[in-house]
Structure formats: structure tokens, C-alpha cells
Design brief:
It is a single chain. This protein has helices spanning 2-32, 44-78, 81-114, 119-146, 148-155, 167-176. With 177 residues, the protein is mostly helical. Helix 2 packs antiparallel against helix 3 and helix 3 (81-114) packs antiparallel against helix 4. The mean pLDDT is 84.
């Protein structure tokens, strides 16, 4: 009703109020469990490790975006802007699969690795995570590769069927990443 009567402002009010209510309820639950959610505790090795992962992620995103701009520029200049549209359709599906497979694993791995202080334990934990993630990522990439044409038809349009020729390269790159 708030959105119906107040439009965008109502939606904003509803979103902010529900978020604040959720924060208060979760904070209250955490206090009841004996955890102090509003206290800040610094652990230098953990902060340095997280900062290193943050910088590595920043560099990775920058390189990925620069290479994407380069690929799009080359497609537009050498072939056509329509080929760029096909590339966009393929990369969106590939990115969705990558995000679904790796998003929860990424946050879990960061938490698991940050608890270990020795280099050997971090390497062991990372190897165990890779052994669990790589088969799942390979199966997801293979499924998208096999069902790329139906996925493009269902999620985009039959006009984007030609985008399927990008999938071997995109899925290979996503798997390596």
C-alpha cells in the first residue's frame, strides 16, 4: 500500500524501514546469542589478509573491464555493432552462471582463509576449496555450453542464437578465472 499511494518515494521509505527493522532484529538476536555486533575488533594479520584480497580483487576487476572494453571495441571496429550485441548476450549468460556458482563460494573461502594465520594452512584451505569448486564450475560451464542455444532462446530471444559461438571462449575464460 505504501508503494501504491506514494510511488517511488513510498518504495524508498518501505525499503529503508524494512532494512532498518531487519538490522535491529538481527542485532537483537546476536546480542541474545552473546555476540556483540556493534563492537569493532582489529586483528592485524586478518586485516592485512583481507586488504590483500581486496587489492587483488580490485586489480582483477580493472583488468577484466579493460579487456572487455578492448574486445568490444575490436568487435565494433572490425565486424559490426551487431556482433557486439551478440557478445553482450553471451557474456551476460556466462556471467550469471559464474556468479551463481562462485558467489557463495567466494564469501565462504574468504572467511575460511582469513581464519588461518600460517601460509601452509592458507594454501591447504585454498586447495581444498578448489577441489570442491572446480568440479561444480566445470559442470555448470559444460551445461551452459551444451544448452547455450536453448538458454539464449529462453532468456534472450531467438535472434541471439548466433551468440552461441562466443560461449567456448567465455566459458573457458570464466573457468580459468
Amino acid at each position: 500500500p505504501v508503494v501504491w499511494f506514494f510511488g517511488f518515494v513510498g518504495a524508498t521509505i518501505q525499503y529503508v524501514s524494512l532494512t532498518l527493522l531487519l538490522v535491529v532484529l538481527l542485532g537483537y538476536r546476536c546480542v541474545k546469542l552473546g555476540y556483540r555486533p556493534w563492537s569493532v575488533r582489529w586483528n592485524r594479520p586478518v586485516v592485512y589478509g583481507l586488504a590483500f584480497f581486496g587489492i587483488a580483487s580490485l586489480i582483477n576487476s580493472f583488468v577484466q573491464n579493460v579487456s572487455d572494453v578492448g574486445i568490444r571495441t575490436a568487435l565494433i571496429n572490425q565486424i559490426s555493432s551487431a556482433e557486439n550485441g551478440l557478445y553482450t548476450a553471451a557474456i551476460l549468460l556466462s556471467s550469471q552462471v559464474k556468479t551463481i556458482v562462485l558467489s557463495s563460494v567466494g564469501s565462504y573461502s574468504l572467511a575460511a582463509i582469513s581464519q588461518n594465520h600460517s601460509r601452509e594452512n592458507i594454501i591447504l584451505t585454498a586447495n581444498q576449496l578448489l577441489k570442491a569448486v572446480l568440479p561444480i564450475a566445470a559442470l555448470a560451464a559444460a551445461a551452459l555450453g551444451v544448452f547455450s542455444v536453448p538458454a539464449l532462446i529462453i532468456l534472450a530471444s531467438p535472434r541471439f542464437i548466433e551468440a552461441a559461438h562466443f560461449f567456448p571462449f567465455l566459458l573457458g575464460a570464466d573457468f580459468v578465472q
